[in-house]
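Aim 2 progress update. The chain analyzed this quarter is reproduced below.
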Amino acid sequence: MKIRVLGCSGGIGAGLRTTSILIDDDILIDAGTGVGDLSLDEMSRIRHVFLTHSHMDHITALPLMIDSIFERINDPINVYTQPETAKAIKEHVFNWMIWPDFTVLPTEENPVLNFHSMVPGETIEIKKRVIEMIAVNHNIPAAGYRVQGENGAFAFSGDTTTNDSFWEALNKHGSLELLFVETAFTNRQRNLAQIAHHYCSSLLANDLNKLKHRPDVYLTHLKPGEEIAILSEMRVAVQQFALKTLVGGEVFTL
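Predicted structure tokens:
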């Protein structure tokens, strides 16, 4: 299983892309601006998109990608997400005012885009990769994912703050080789992190103690300009993991 980080920033700027992770060549987790670095051929091979939630930095490229490959694909793109997320995207994006409704194009019977409801705790197997949706704690309905391949597993928290559900779900499994976990804010911005339902350094450091596994841990969704400060705070607070930050473009193989 190949895991390619297309985007991982909490914002945009020169060289920064928002959240999107490509698994092999056919599965996306989230569809942030990082998708725009794929070629048309690479986008055309994507068949499945798992969304964590409906915030713009995680879905921006979805309508643009569909439009770009509309005439290049024969099979629909399948989007898996919680019902509330699908409802928000269909009402506020694919509504003909913001973007064409690709759930009925080219025809209602044969659309290029299909939404599939998924709930935390549910798993879907696609070509020997098992994707599990996990409940997290954000200010709108949101989820993380654990992906089990034939030779290992990785997990992605999506956007969240202090919770038990994500860590308990990971601990139910026998192993975890790789973890991408958000840390949006520095400790100086702890109050904002709690209001926005994101982790800051101290909040994540506390929650990492709940994890029984010892995967390689990569921090993601860091606010632009705060990357060095967040990593420094985390390395002081967390001794049991050799922490690194995602910068985009990384490729991992499990």
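The chain has one domain: 2-253. Helices lie at 40-44, 56-59, 61-69, 83-92, 165-171, 190-196, 201-208, 227-237. These observations will guide the mutagenesis experiments scheduled for the next reporting period.
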